[in-house]
Specification:
By secondary structure, the chain is an alpha+beta fold. The chain has two helices and eight strands; from the N terminus they run H-E-E-E-E-E-E-E-E-H. The chain starts with a helix and ends in a 5-residue tail after the last helix.
Length: about 160
């Protein structure tokens, strides 16, 4: 009897876990069909051990307007009209907690499109010395193909 109860509990736990799939991401289309959606995300660093700048975060400006703070393992959903837009990750605002220099990228979007941009922060292990992490980073703000982004963005939250 004990083995039967144990089997039921394990089966139910497995079924509940399968129903609550948190490893799935589906983009939300733009509310206005004339707009595009850009998902800007900051995945976990891929280096082993200590992760760089996990408590530091830039403010994201699009066309000189703030769209939010991009914290570690978070993403922002940004709806924009079709055209070219300048993205800037900056620490030069009162809300930002970011010391590295600004990173910029200009992205052209089309109406109805969904785009992905990654803000990647990694340790520059080639130039690091033992015990020195400060200032040894590789930081990129760039577009990412959807086929790659959907696997990375699902590890982030809004």
């Amino acid at each position: 009897m004990y083995q039967f109860r144990y089997l039921i509990v394990v089966t139910l736990a497995t079924l509940i876990g399968a129903c609550a799939n948190t490893d799935y991401f589906a983009p939300t289309p733009a509310a206005d069909p004339e707009n595009a959606v850009v998902y800007l995300y900051r995945p976990a660093a891929s280096n082993p051990g200590k992760k760089p700048l996990t408590t530091s975060y830039p403010e994201i400006m699009v066309d000189d307007r703030s769209v939010g703070l991009l914290k570690y393992r978070k993403h922002l959903r940004i709806e924009l009209p079709a055209g070219s837009h300048k993205f800037v990750a900056t620490g030069l605002t009162p809300e930002a907690r970011w010391e590295p220099e600004n990173r910029e990228y200009t992205l052209r979007v089309e109406a109805g499109g969904v785009y992905y941009m990654r803000f990647r922060v990694e340790f520059n292990t080639d130039s690091m010395s033992l015990g020195s992490f400060r200032g040894q980073y590789i930081i990129h703000l760039h577009p990412v193909d959807e086929s790659e982004a959907i696997y990375q963005i699902r590890e982030t939250s809004a």
